Amino acid sequence: MSRRIGIITALIAIILIVALDWSLGTPPDPYRAPDPMAFGSISGASGAICSFVPGAENDTTNRH
Amino acid sequence: MVIRISLVVTLLLTLAVFAGVRFSLLLGLGLLIGFTLERCGFGFAGPWRRLVRDRDAQGVIAQLIAIGLTASAIQPLIAYAPGSLIGAIAPVSLSMIIAAAVFGLSMQMILGCGSGTLVNAGSGNIVALAALPLFCLGSFLGSLIVPLAVQSTPHVPLNLTKLLGVEQSVAVTLAGLLVVGLIARGFSQGSIWNRKFLTAAVFLAVLATLHVLIAGQPWGVVYGLGLWTAKAAQGIGWDPNTAQFWIHPVNATALKESILTDTTSLTNIGLITGAALAAWIDSVNKPFKQSIAVWYYVVAALFGLFLGISSRLAFGCNVGGLFSGIASGSVHGWAWLIAGFIGSVAGVHLRDKLWLRASREAR
To answer: I want to staple B275 with a disulfide (CB 3.0 to 4.6 A). Which of B122, B153, B218, B297 is the partner?
Structure first.
């Protein structure tokens, strides 16, 4: 058995995650899409970031 | 090659139409990062391991160059566009430092960091495939624990760009990276330069800078993994209103919206897919199963769980905490580097012992 089976497993897992999220949750709405680039846009960063600090009002700690 | 490029273009165009151009660009960035890391054999756990075991600093030097280039670009950009761009700024604390050390140890046990585990899984590595599901679970569990850690120990956010100004912050960041590089060079035996790693480092810095311009925030990994598990938990009856982390408007929105509109989810999907595309042809000649005892996969899964929990408590893994933290001017990135490396030294020795035992038992 080659490593290709592992690649296929990983890709199937990704497809399943996206499909489940699409079917059970809210599908994306292109009409509410932000500007293509956050730089210089009013629709900037989402703030959903690894350095998020709960209870510290991230909007102020993260923004410069 | 033509088929793979056509598939990628179709995928990106479809996402642009169904979700939006920004999300398509982010998926594209993730694909390029995954492809680059896999094709160049570049990462974080491996270079740290080679420095500790073989006194080979080539990978570490390339990492430092990637961080330095990114810092030089994104710190002024973030300061120039404060309304739309944010840095990976997080506090330094005792729990954060311990968690970074645990992450350093865990990433050596599975030879995969935050980005590395995704890239390895995408390239069909069975150890990474065993660790990844529990990495996701751990990231979610960490999100439930982190408010308690924040409340119980002092957490001090130190942002160099705010403390010193942008120019001095960039200078201090580059000087710090130079000092680390000189220490690594002093410890190293042989050349510290590797053309392939340096190429990957420059690519990574360009892609990380583009990430900030497009997403408005630096590259990360762990947030998306925790989000996927939180959504799954919600599907089986978990109430996010009971978790302080998930009731914050930022996270509640992420939980409500599609993962195809979440920055870290998209780059994570891109990383796995990009690595899969890079590894596809050679994968036929590589064995899927490694010659180790089955119990090592359980150990890998367990350390995958530790990766997830610790990266939430450390405010990011080697990508969101170390790479993006230092590049953004956050002192927590430096604390992450020191603690993570100490944990890695222990992890290298522990892995060698367990791997040897698992290999012997498999014969």
So the answer is: B122
